[in-house]
Q: What sequence folds into this?
C-alpha cells in the first residue's frame, strides 16, 4: 500500500506526458468559433445609410451559400482585404453580405465610396451588439454560411489570396454542390 | 571557419557527455577509482567544449557573420553592441546553447568544488548531470543547430526582435537559466542518492549550496523578467500570469519548498523522501517550462520558437528524465528509512505546512497554465485562463503561508510552544494592527483588503526582525552581549532573516501597487496639463527621433508637484523598420516609494474607433497613459533582498567545512528551545 503512494508521482506524470503528446498535435493559433456548424444568431440590423444597399437580418441568410464579412472604416487590415472582396464579388458571383461594425454610418459609407462596395446587403452594427452574438473579437472577420443558414467557417483577420484559394473557395464549392 | 569549429566542439561535447554519463556509473558500482575519475575530467572537458561552441557563436554575432543562418535571422549590422551579444540567446538555437552551457558549467562546478564529496556520490551526480547534457546536446545538434550556414549569404541580417532589444531582457535569460538549470544539480544529487539508496544529513548539506545558488539566481531572473514586462510592455503592470512567466514561477515555488524541507532533512534527518521528490519536481518543472516555451504548445506573447518536431524531441527528453527519475523514486524511495519524529507544532511542523502550501500553490499554477492545453486535448475547445483565476486561487494560499512563516523560526525543533512564540511576536502583531488601522483611516473602509495585505507585509518584515532580536537576546542581555551574539550569528541565520524580510518588502509593493495604482488615459495636446495623484504632468509635445536601428516618436512630460519640478519623462514609441514592429518605451521616474509612469501612443489612437482612420493634423492630440504606481519599486527591491538572503546563506561556514555539526548543538544555539 505504501509503495503505491510512491508510484503516485510517476502515474501523475504519465498522464501529463500523454496530454502533452496530444497537445503537440494541436495548433494553438487556430481559434474555432463557438458557433461553428450552428445556425446564425437571430438579428435584424438597419441598413447602412448612404451605402445604397438593403438592410441585413438573419432571415436573409437562409437561402443560399454566402459570405458575411465584418468590417469597419477604422480597421487598417480591412483596407488590405477590400480589393480581394471586390474581386470576389465581381468574378465569382458569390453573394457577400457586410456588417459595418462599431463604426459611424457616415465613415463606413465613405469607406465604401472610396474603395467600392462588394456587399449585396449591409447591416449597420454601430453598438457592436450583434457582433457579440456572432462572437466577433477583431475585425475583419469573415463567416461562410451554407444554404440552411449554418455557419460553416470563420476566418479571423484579412483574407489573403492564399486563404481564398486553399480554404474558402473549395469550401464554398463543396457547399454549393 | 569559426562556426564550423563551434559546431565540431558541440559534437565533441556530446561525445564527452556520453562517456561521462556511462563510465562513472559503472565505476561507482564496482568501486573503481579510475572509472569514477572519468566523471571529473569529463565534466571539465564537456564544459570546455560547450564554452568553445558558445564563444564561436558569440564571435559570429559580434562580427556580424550573416552567412550563419542564426545570425542572419536574429541580428543586424546596425544593432548596438550589447544586443549583438544578447542576440546570441535571443533566439531558439542560441538560448538552447546557453541552456547547455549553464548545465555544463554546473557540472564543472561540482567537479571543481565537490572535493569534499565521497567519490562514488560525486561520480554518480556527475553522470546524472551528463545524462541531461546528452539529451540537450543531442537536441541542439540534431534539431537546432545554431551554426547552420546560408548560401548565398545575405548582405545584412533581419534584426533582433525589437522587444528583446532592451537591457533588462539582455540579462534576463542568463539569470533565469542559472536558476532553472541550476536546479539540474539538485536533481542530479537526488537521483544519485536514490541510486545509492541513502539520504542522510551529510547529503542534505552537500546539496544545499546548489539549491541556494539556483534559488537565488532564479529569484533574480524572474524579477528581471517582471521588471522588463513592467517597463517595456507599457501596461503599467508587473506580473501577467502569462504561461511563460508561470513556467519560471513553478520551479521557483517548488525550489522554495525544497530549500525549507532540505533544512529538516539536514538538521533532523526527517522528510527525506519528500525532499528527494521536491528536488526531482523542481527540475522537472524547469524541463516542462522549457518544453512549454520551446514547443509552442501554448501560445504566448513570448514563445519565439514554434516547431512540433522540436516539441516532440523535448517531450521525449521529458519522459526519459522525469519519467525515469520518478520511476527510480517509486522503486527506491520506500526503502529510505524515515528519521526523527516531531509534534505538529514544531519547527519541522512549520516547514511541513510551508511545503504543503507551496506545493499546492505550484500545483494551482500548473493547472491554470496547462488547463487550456488539457481542455484542447479532450474537447478541442480553446480557452485561456487569466489573472482572475490565479488571483483567486494563489493569493489565498499565500496568506496562511506568510502568517505561519513568521512563527516557524520561533518554534523549537521536535516540539514547539505556539503560545510562547506568539507572546514573543507581540511587537510584530501590534505593528500589523497599526498598519490595518492606518490604512483604513487614510484610505477608508473600501480598502479593507489592501489593509490586511499591508498588515501581512508588516507582519512578515516585522516578524523576521523580531526573530533576529530574539536570537541576539536584544534588551534582555546587555547591549554589548547582543552585539557579540549578532556578530556570531551563522550566515545561514542572517540569510533567512534577510530573505524573509525581503518577502515582506515585496508584499508591501505588490499590495500597494495593485490597490492604489492611479491610471489616466487621455488625449493630450501640447500644453495640456494632467493632474494625477497630486502631480501635474505637462505635455510639451512629441518629436520624431532616429536611433541606430529604429525611428522613434518621443514625447516630453514635465512633472511638477505644487509648482516644484519633479522629473521630465520621455515616453516613446519605437518603430523598427527591418522587422516592421513597434515597441513601447515607457518613461519611469522612481520616487522609491512610488513610480511616475508615462506611455505615449499614436496620434489620436484612442479616437480611431468611429473617428478618422488616419491622423491629418500634425498638432492633433496624442493618446497618453499616465500611472502613479505606489510602492511598486519595492517589488524588485524586495526580490533583490530575498536573493541577497540566499547569497548570504550560501557563504555559511558549514558549506565549506567537511565536519558535520550535530543538530542538537545547533538547536541549543537558537533562542526557542
A:
Amino acid at each position: 500500500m505504501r509503495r503505491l503512494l510512491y508510484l503516485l508521482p510517476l502515474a501523475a506524470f504519465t498522464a501529463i506526458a500523454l496530454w502533452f503528446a496530444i497537445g503537440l498535435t494541436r495548433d494553438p493559433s487556430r481559434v474555432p468559433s463557438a458557433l461553428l456548424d450552428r445556425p446564425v444568431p437571430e438579428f435584424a440590423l438597419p441598413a447602412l445609410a448612404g451605402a445604397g444597399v438593403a438592410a441585413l437580418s438573419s432571415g436573409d441568410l437562409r437561402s443560399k451559400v454566402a459570405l458575411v464579412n465584418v468590417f469597419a472604416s477604422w480597421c487598417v487590415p480591412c483596407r488590405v482585404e477590400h480589393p480581394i472582396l471586390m474581386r470576389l464579388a465581381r468574378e465569382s458571383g458569390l453573394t457577400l453580405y457586410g456588417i459595418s461594425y462599431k463604426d459611424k454610418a457616415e465613415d463606413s459609407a465613405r469607406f465604401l465610396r472610396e474603395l467600392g462596395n462588394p456587399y449585396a446587403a449591409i447591416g449597420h452594427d454601430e453598438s457592436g451588439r450583434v457582433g457579440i452574438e456572432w462572437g466577433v473579437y477583431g475585425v475583419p472577420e469573415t463567416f461562410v454560411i451554407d444554404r440552411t443558414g449554418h455557419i460553416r467557417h470563420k476566418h479571423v483577420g484579412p483574407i489573403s489570396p492564399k486563404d481564398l484559394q486553399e480554404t474558402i473557395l473549395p469550401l464554398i464549392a463543396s457547399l454549393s454542390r | 571557419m569559426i562556426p564550423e569549429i563551434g559546431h565540431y566542439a558541440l559534437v565533441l561535447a556530446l561525445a564527452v557527455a556520453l562517456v561521462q554519463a556511462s563510465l562513472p556509473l559503472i565505476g561507482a558500482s564496482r568501486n573503481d577509482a579510475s572509472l569514477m575519475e572519468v566523471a571529473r575530467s569529463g565534466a571539465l572537458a564537456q564544459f570546455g567544449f560547450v564554452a568553445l561552441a558558445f564563444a564561436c557563436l558569440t564571435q559570429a554575432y559580434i562580427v556580424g557573420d550573416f552567412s550563419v543562418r542564426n545570425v542572419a535571422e536574429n541580428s543586424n549590422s546596425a544593432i548596438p553592441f550589447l544586443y549583438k551579444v544578447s542576440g546570441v540567446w535571443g533566439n531558439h538555437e542560441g538560448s538552447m546553447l546557453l541552456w547547455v552551457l549553464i548545465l555544463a558549467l554546473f557540472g564543472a562546478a561540482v567537479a571543481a568544488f565537490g572535493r569534499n564529496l565521497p567519490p562514488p556520490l560525486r561520480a554518480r551526480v556527475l553522470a546524472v548531470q551528463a545524462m541531461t547534457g546528452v539529451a540537450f546536446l543531442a537536441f541542439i545538434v540534431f534539431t537546432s543547430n545554431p551554426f547552420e550556414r546560408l548560401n548565398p549569404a545575405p548582405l545584412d541580417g533581419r534584426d533582433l526582435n525589437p522587444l528583446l532589444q532592451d537591457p533588462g531582457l539582455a540579462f534576463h535569460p542568463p539569470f533565469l537559466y542559472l536558476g532553472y538549470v541550476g536546479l539540474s544539480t539538485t536533481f542530479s544529487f537526488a537521483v544519485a542518492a536514490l541510486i545509492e539508496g541513502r539520504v542522510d544529513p551529510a547529503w542534505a548539506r552537500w546539496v544545499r549550496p546548489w539549491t541556494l545558488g539556483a534559488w537565488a539566481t532564479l529569484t533574480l531572473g524572474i524579477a528581471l523578467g517582471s521588471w522588463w514586462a513592467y517597463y517595456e510592455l507599457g501596461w503599467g503592470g508587473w506580473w501577467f500570469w502569462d504561461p511563460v512567466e508561470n513556467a519560471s514561477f513553478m520551479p521557483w515555488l517548488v525550489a522554495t519548498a525544497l530549500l525549507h524541507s532540505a533544512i529538516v532533512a539536514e538538521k533532523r534527518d526527517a522528510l527525506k523522501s519528500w525532499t528527494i521528490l521536491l528536488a526531482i519536481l523542481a527540475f522537472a518543472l524547469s524541463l516542462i517550462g522549457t518544453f512549454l516555451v520551446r514547443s509552442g504548445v501554448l501560445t504566448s506573447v513570448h514563445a519565439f520558437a514554434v516547431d512540433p518536431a522540436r516539441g516532440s524531441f523535448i517531450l521525449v527528453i521529458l519522459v526519459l528524465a522525469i519519467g525515469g527519475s520518478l520511476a527510480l523514486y517509486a522503486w527506491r524511495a520506500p526503502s529510505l528509512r524515515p528519521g526523527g519524529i516531531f509534534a505538529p507544532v514544531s519547527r519541522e511542523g512549520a516547514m511541513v505546512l510551508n511545503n504543503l502550501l507551496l506545493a499546492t500553490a505550484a500545483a494551482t499554477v500548473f493547472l491554470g497554465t496547462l488547463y487550456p492545453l488539457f481542455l484542447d486535448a479532450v474537447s478541442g475547445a480553446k480557452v485561456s485562463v487569466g489573472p482572475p483565476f490565479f488571483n483567486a486561487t494563489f493569493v489565498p494560499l499565500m496568506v496562511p503561508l506568510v502568517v505561519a512563516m513568521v512563527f516557524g523560526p520561533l518554534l523549537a525543533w521536535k516540539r514547539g510552544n505556539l503560545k510562547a512564540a506568539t507572546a514573543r511576536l507581540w511587537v510584530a502583531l501590534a505593528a500589523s494592527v497599526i498598519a490595518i488601522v492606518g490604512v483604513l483611516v487614510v484610505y477608508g473602509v473600501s480598502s479593507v483588503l489592501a489593509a490586511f495585505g499591508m498588515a501581512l507585509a508588516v507582519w512578515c518584515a516585522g516578524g523576521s526582525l523580531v526573530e533576529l532580536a530574539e536570537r541576539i537576546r536584544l534588551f534582555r542581555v546587555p547591549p554589548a552581549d547582543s552585539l557579540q551574539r549578532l556578530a556570531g550569528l551563522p550566515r545561514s541565520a542572517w540569510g533567512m532573516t534577510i530573505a524573509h524580510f525581503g518577502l515582506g518588502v515585496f508584499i508591501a509593493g505588490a499590495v500597494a501597487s495593485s490597490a492604489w495604482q492611479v491610471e489616466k488615459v487621455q488625449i493630450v495636446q501640447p500644453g495640456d496639463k494632467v493632474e494625477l495623484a497630486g502631480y501635474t504632468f505637462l505635455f510639451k509635445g512629441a518629436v520624431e527621433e532616429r536611433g541606430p536601428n529604429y525611428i522613434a516618436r518621443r514625447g516630453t512630460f514635465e512633472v511638477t508637484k505644487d509648482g516644484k519640478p519633479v522629473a521630465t519623462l520621455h515616453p516613446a514609441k519605437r518603430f523598427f523598420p527591418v522587422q516592421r514592429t513597434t515597441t513601447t518605451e515607457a518613461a519611469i521616474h522612481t520616487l522609491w516609494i512610488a513610480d511616475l509612469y508615462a506611455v505615449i501612443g499614436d496620434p489620436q489612437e484612442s479616437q480611431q474607433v468611429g473617428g478618422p482612420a488616419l491622423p491629418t493634423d500634425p498638432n492633433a492630440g496624442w493618446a497618453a497613459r499616465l500611472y502613479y504606481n505606489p510602492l511598486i519599486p519595492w517589488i524588485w527591491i524586495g526580490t533583490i533582498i530575498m536573493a541577497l538572503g540566499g547569497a548570504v546563506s550560501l557563504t555559511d561556514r558549514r558549506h565549506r567545512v567537511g565536519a558535520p555539526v550535530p543538530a542538537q548543538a545547533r538547536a541549543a544555539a537558537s533562542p526557542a528551545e
